Amino acid sequence: MNNYRGITKEEIKQLIQQGCQSDDWDKLYIKPTTDLLKIESVTFSGENYIGHIEGTRTFYGGIIKQNSIKNVHLHNCKIGDNAFINNVKSYIANYNIGDNVMIDNVDIIAVDGECSFGNGVTVDVINEGGGRDILIFNQLSAQIAYLLALYRHKTVLIDELKRMIEEYTLSVTSSVGHIGDDVKILNANTIKGVCIGDGAYINSASKLINGSINSTKESQVYIGTDVMATNFIISSDSKVDNSSILTNCFIGQGCLIDKHYSIEHSIFFANSQGFNGEACSIFAGPYTVTHHKSTLLIAGLFSFMNAGSGSNQSNHMYKLGPIHQGIMERGAKTTSDSYVLWPSKIGPFTLVMGRHYQHVDSSDFPFSYLIEGNNKSYLIPGANLKSVGTVRDAQKWPKRDNRSKNNRLDIINFNLLSPYTIHKVSKGLRHLYDILDLSGDKLDEYNYKDMVVKKSSLHNGIKMYNIVINKFLGNSIISRVENKNINTVQELREVLKPTSTIGQGKWIDVCGLLCPISALNLFVDKVEKLEVKTVEDAINELNEINNHYYEYEWNWAVELIESFYKIKIEEITTENFINIVSNWKKAVVDLDKMLYKDASKEFDLHSYVGFGADGEEKEKLADFKNVRGAFESNSTVLEILSHIDRKEKLGDKIIAQIKEIKG
């Protein structure tokens, strides 16, 4: 190799005097500037390369030590510049080690034969009994995983995606491991067949076998105390700590796995968190969060999900094994001690409370409550639209994106109201009207797909769904004309014309990517026709779909505008437009007032219980205000009031703009 040379007889003698030994000194190579005084008590076997050694390290407590290589057996290793390697009990074998690496007090770091470092490992997601297995690899995104797991009926697609992954796996397969620049490995036990990226910090890990730690200089990975991981990939910006156990799993970017969390045959994508509990055969899409010791997530698909303490599901009926599965669509939440019997399908942004022993399907009723009562599952359609918590969630997710801005694997669309959710809202609205038409308005309760809908809930659901449709369509049409110079009705109609038919029809959530199913089907066709040949091609194609989101959104919105308001876009009048904006303004204000009222519940008299522990009412009020603050100055409350003001002004501005248009 360039810049390396063999060692001289004098240098061999010096190394022997410093306690070193080798079975063949002719296979040891150093740089001209390598300081042999920094190499002590080292056993060399195979072919080894040692870089330049200078500088110091500062350890915990302010202890400073010179960079050096001591008390280690090196076998077939290339070591970069300025290494600190000390006290490796067994050996380091078959590794290329970067610059400025620190390895101290480790049992063993080795690769034995050909290794793919976690790439190509089979993970049985969603269905514990198999059938939805995917192959994990370094570039796995939530979208590719979604297709692999849920599009099994597209056999050519699955075969092609697996071929791409197998080709990628072959490209990273090697008999030599990699430890990148600036890596720290301290007080670890067993590391076998692990590829470690730049800047990774492994501190007191117990066992790491057959995996990749995809740390980068800008997006570092931390592996902490007593972590055990086998057949794994951990992506950039992630942290795994405190006795967590990983077996056959993929951890995406910006994830946090901590506090004894146990994962088996599962995949976690961007910004997900797992503490204390257990995951088995789950597909945890972006922002899946579970923090409680008594919580089990099993055999399901989740995303933007918060699991309450004691939440669990059953995938086993004690007949043919653990073959059942469930889906909680984006934004679903479970309260403490919730239970859902799989198979079930929970709609987007639905709050699940209590224990549900029926196979419920609320997928056409987003923003709802699903509550247990009298051993029944009661559906309250649209109730979550009035919850300030729903809005708070939508606002916090983008702020809690822990991923570095470069090289993000998962496509994430954070929009709360989108063609995906509003398409379901419109379907749910039709179902509610159909229930009324079929059963009349005299019943107190209605049955629908193993759920019960109370009469009051049905009418409130119709009201809430109409409000949110008006809000979404107003948002869309205003964004289409805002800041545009429109002088005539014909120009208005031109601006509002759809750009194509792509976007019309059904929309889906491809685990973070919101898109029309027609656009995804075009991608699938390209893969099946071999027009998409590599992993990189697939990633680029999916990103291209995401880049056209707002264009496709408008194409879809036009369809709903025409059916909901009974008008044609090519014939729209200024009066039609003003009516849509007026309906939007009323919907926004009405919803915000509901949110304001909901937020006020956190400051009512019941909230004062437990404050002012040793005082009377005066002290209770004072204690509450000092801890929680005043309702009027709460940041969320102020934002609601500000939002009402901003949107009213925007509506007035747009209406004034349209009134200036000539017929």
From TrEMBL:
Name recorded for this polypeptide: DUF4954 domain-containing protein
Domain called DUF6819: residue spans: 490-658
Pfam family, one: DUF6819
Species in which this protein is naturally found: Wenyingzhuangia fucanilytica
UniProt domain DUF4954: residue ranges: 4-433
